[in-house]
Design brief:
- With 313 residues, the chain is mainly α.
- The chain has one domain: Orthogonal Bundle (MetI-like fold), CATH 1.10.3720.10.
- 69% of the residues lie in helices and 1% in strands.
- The protein has a two-stranded antiparallel ribbon.
- The protein is flat, with a radius of gyration of 29 Å.
- The protein starts with 25 loop residues before the first helix and ends in a 10-residue tail after the last helix.
Length: 313
């Protein structure tokens, strides 16, 4: 006689215990603060605190709330439109030339490695070793026929003095050439270093697939160094929009040709030094800061500067 047995219900497999996430070690946390702490303090003391004080100064006059009177005075200043137009024209002419020069020379150096590459890096960087007022004085001599090594060319162009060379709209062209000569060399070295850090297996795979040098540059190298290109663009825009030393020094060699408020930064300087109106100077400085932050945000978002491989496209 068979004995009937009731089948046992299947036993569910025990759930896997979720491993607890490892806590960040104190040494690692301390290392992070050691690296980030000094810059954070520097940013607060020399960046955020002055910006906050400028904001307070632009709205408070003699201890009382001015109601934005300084902002309105700055926006209605007839000199602001001309200064903004000068700086905008300068940026539209200078930034594309600078970026194309840096990209073309850096990619050329990377595509043609050899002993001459190091020499060319030094040659490209040398003009950038002279910056600021020294560079402006150097270029002031360059456009003066009496002292310029290019005096035959200047005479051929009917340039009899620095005043002729800096008259009319030629100021923007001179500043653009000066800016490329001063800033391009350092950025070429930076971008060339980024190109040297690219993984060789990716570049070799492109060559095996039959990609030309142009396609490799455009579809492989450039996307991989987009972060550095974005950094060059942001930093160059910030320095170009705050142009101050160059037109100030050049105006000494061409009296009457370059206005003391030629650039927006010069106008803010005049508010503070000549007019003694720090409220208007603070308002204009904050407006320039807002434009720079907006431009940086556009570049960062468009180029996905801080994107990682795990981020969704």
């Amino acid at each position: 006689m068979k004995t009937l047995t009731t089948p046992r219900p299947p036993v569910a497999a025990p759930a896997r215990a979720t491993a607890p996430r490892p806590r960040r070690r104190p040494a690692r946390r301390a290392a992070i603060w050691i690296l980030v702490g000094p810059y954070t303090a520097f940013l607060v003391v020399f960046g955020l605190a002055p910006a906050g004080y400028a904001l307070w100064t632009s709205f408070v006059d003699d201890g009382s709330f001015s109601g934005g009177r300084d902002w309105a005075a700055v926006l209605h200043d007839y000199r602001l439109g001309d200064a903004a137009a000068h700086v905008t024209t300068y940026l539209l002419l200078w930034l594309p030339i600078l970026l194309m020069t840096v990209l073309s020379l850096a990619f050329t150096l990377h595509a043609r490695p050899g002993r001459t590459t190091r020499v060319l890096q030094l040659v490209y960087y040398l003009p950038g070793a002279v910056t600021g007022s020294a560079a402006a004085l150097l270029w002031l001599f360059m456009v003066s026929p009496d002292s310029s090594p290019f005096s035959p060319l200047l005479q051929l162009m009917d340039v009899a003095s620095a005043t002729d060379a800096l008259s009319g709209g030629s100021v923007v062209a001179v500043l653009a050439v000066m800016g490329v000569a001063v800033h391009a060399g350092g950025w070429i070295v930076v971008l060339y270093g980024a190109l040297n850090a690219l993984p060789r297996d990716v570049l070799e795979a492109a060559q095996v697939d039959g990609a030309s040098a142009w396609r490799t540059m455009w579809h492989v190298k450039l996307p991989m160094v987009r972060t550095y290109v974005a950094f060059v663009l942001i930093s160059s825009f910030a320095s170009g929009s705050q142009v101050f030393v160059e037109p100030t020094v050049l105006s000494t060699g061409a009296p009457g040709q370059i206005s003391p408020s030629w650039s927006v930064n010069q106008l803010a300087y005049n508010y503070a030094t000549q007019d003694g109106d720090f409220g208007k100077a603070a308002a204009l400085s904050l407006a320039m800061l807002a434009v720079g932050v907006l431009a940086a945000w556009i570049v960062i978002t468009r180029t996905r500067m801080y994107a990682t491989d795990s981020d969704p496209r």
